[in-house]
Amino acid sequence: MAVKLRLTRMGRRHRPFFRINAVESRTPRDGRILEKLGHYDPIEKDPARQVVLNRERVEYWLGKGAIPSDTVSQILLRHGVKHKYAEVKAARRARARAVARAKGKLFTKAERVAAERAAKAVDEEAKAKAEAEAKAKAEADAKIRAEAKEKAKAEEQAKTQAEAEEKAEAAQVVEEKAKAEVVEEKAKAEVVEEKVEAEVVEEKVEAEAAEEKVEAKVEAKAEAEAAPEKVEDKAEAVKEKAEAKVAEKKAKAKPEEKAKAKPKAKAKPEEKPKPKAKARTKKKTASRKKTDKSDEN
């Protein structure tokens, strides 16, 4: 019957304690033991008291061909107890590791954990790289969109400004045309006014000429009417002059004749018409003045 060196669990819950025993390979974990070889206390903090071994009895059972379990083998190797099963196991594990590496597989748990960590790191790096690339791409797209938006906005502003300038130019042209039309209309109105004024002046001149003609005719008529009166006045004046001369001659005559002429002078009824002639002349002059005033009016 093969003998094995393995651990037997002792202690209570949450307080494990293991014994190192030599047992038959077919007995259960808590079955009958052949010999107690030491104990293992994992909670003990002092390394010297954590593992207690009976080295002589351990070497005895190893020399008899006892096979230690993996945990007992590690404990023995840690405390300087070498055995052939550990060397065989190490050589076997090295061959298996070489075969696994040749096939591209992971052999130990540590390697698998390291590979998983490396893969996770690679994945995280790739993910971070992808996120950075996506972020950079998004930023580039946003920048391109912003530039396109700004360009479109600038083009729209330029277009609206050009349209506004065109509208302003069109409005200016229309305004200039309107001003030109107003100026032309003013010039036409001035020309028409000048024509009207010229016509009015011509009409006034014609009216004045007609009035002058009428006045000339009236004056001519008045003069024609006043001509006989002037002739009569001249005849009366001549007559008066003649009478004055006769009187002077009589005054120069003899005194007798003057004495004789005195009673005649008292009764002068015949010489009274002289003032009448003067009154006629005065009346004629007054009528002449009235005709002159009417002509002036």
Compact overview of the structure:
The protein is 75% helix and 10% strand. It is an alpha+beta fold and 297 residues long.
Describe the structure.
- Mean pLDDT is 79; it is low at 258-273 and 275-279.
- It is built from seven helices and five strands; from the N terminus they run E-E-E-H-E-H-E-H-H-H-H-H.
- The chain has helices at residues 47-50, 55-63, 70-78, 84-103, 109-252, 255-266, 273-296, and strands at residues 3-12, 15-24, 35-40, 51-53, 67-68.
- The N and C termini lie far apart (182 Å).
- It has a five-stranded mixed sheet.
- Among the domains are: 3-105, Ribosomal protein S16 (S16 Ribosomal Protein, Chain: A); 229-296.
- The protein is rod-shaped and about 230 Å long.
- Helix 5 (109-252) runs antiparallel to helix 7.
- By secondary structure, the protein is of the alpha+beta class.
Structural class: alpha+beta
Shape, please? rod-shaped
Output the CATH homologous superfamily of the domain at 3-105.
Ribosomal protein S16
Order of neighbouring strands in the sheet with most strands:
4-3-2-1-5
Percent helix:
over 70%
Radius of gyration: 84 Å
Task: Describe the structure using short key phrases.
alpha+beta, 5-stranded mixed β-sheet, S16 Ribosomal Protein, Chain: A, 297 residues
What layout of secondary structure does this protein have?
Blueprint: E1 3-12, E2 15-24, E3 35-40, H1 47-50, E4 51-53, H2 55-63, E5 67-68, H3 70-78, H4 84-103, H5 109-252, H6 255-266, H7 273-296
Parallel strand pairs: 1-5
Antiparallel strand pairs: 1-2, 2-3, 3-4
Helix pairs in contact: 5-7
